[in-house]
Amino acid sequence: MYAVLLFAAAALLSNSRAAIVNRHMKLLDINNSIEANTKPTAHQTKRFITITKRPASRSAHVAGATLELTCEAIAAPAPSVHWFKNDAPVYEYDKESNEVIDTNPSSLGRVRSTLLVTRNDAPSEYTCLILSGSKTARASTVVYSSETNTDLTERSKLVPLSPKILVSYKVFVDIIGSNIVLPCRVKGHPRPIVTWTDNNGESVKKNPGMKVLRSGELVISQLRWSDMGEFTCRAKNLFGSAEAKTFVYPARPNDTDG
User: Fold this and answer.
1) pLDDT score of 91
2) Strands 184-189 and 218-220: what pairing?
3) pLDDT digits (tens, 9 = 90+) for 71-101
4) E-assigned strands of 146-253?
5) Contact between residue 249 and residue 24 where contact means Cβ atoms under 8 Å apart
6) Can you give the pLDDT at residue 24?
7) What is the pLDDT of residue 214?
8) How many Å apart are CA 79 and CA 94, to the nearest integer?
């Protein structure tokens, strides 16, 4: 059980590191998520999916402004989020960022995804679809315009935009030795530069086992126990910067069995 795994690890660590593990375990809300699902058979990793934050049932969009719709979910395997407008997929990222990167069946994570709505001429239904292995969950909101001003809306597209991190994991757990991918998908104008620092605050460029993709994702090869800690993604352009932290927990293979 992941809860037992993290509690045991916390007991073995120094007080300061134990506090960090406990804080991130609370972010996973593991007990509540697992108890709501059936127990797995022996040697099978628990599968569950829970939406922890969803948009309001109705959301007002002001012309010329940006409306942020956010979904958060916890799942095993670690989930991905896909957005739809009236059942049509919505892509917020540069083309090279649209590839689907599968997560390992042994993983667990808490993901946060934000959709930026800059134009909405008529009431539309926006849906975040959470995928975790073969399981899905969804949350929807109806976005309506509180006023109409086409000229203002068109001009807003040309305004410089400081970086916004739209997709990241708050917590990610996987088995030691796994190859993992941590997303950091951003939007900004001009296009932000994305960098990562590791759990020691050092640039990941110094580590031959880590690589940042053009899309902003961080690839960690052969996950090690020493990789435990917070990895930080930073996005920067001429108009500002933003950052998101992902707490990575390397688990032992037998820790994720039922």
Assistant:
1) 73
2) unpaired
3) 999 999 999 999 999 999 987 654 444 445 6
4) 161-175, 180-182, 184-189, 193-197, 210-212, 218-220, 229-237, 240-251
5) yes
6) 60
7) 87
8) 21
Q: Which two tokens stand for residue 157?
A: 């597209």
Residue linked to tokens 């509540």: 32
Strands 240-251 and 161-175: parallel
Q: Edge-to-edge strand order for the sheet containing 218-220? A: 180-182, 218-220, 210-212
Centre a 10 Å sphere on the Cβ of residue 226 and count the other Cβ atoms it contains. Answer: 11
| pLDDT averaged over every residue in the chain | 80
Q: Could you tell me whether strands 58-61 and 135-145 are parallel, antiparallel, or unpaired per DSSP bridges?
A: parallel
> Please, which residues bridge with residue 81 across strands?
130
Q: What is the pLDDT of residues 169-226, one digit of tens each?
A: 999 999 999 999 999 999 998 999 999 999 999 999 989 999 999 889 999 999 999 9
Burial 168-194 (b: 16+ CB within 10 A, else e): bbbbbbbbbebebbbbbbbbbeeebeb
Identity of the amino acid at 39: K
Q: How far apart are CA 55 and CA 67, in angstroms?
A: 11
How many helices and strands, by DSSP H and E, does the chain display?
A: 4, 16
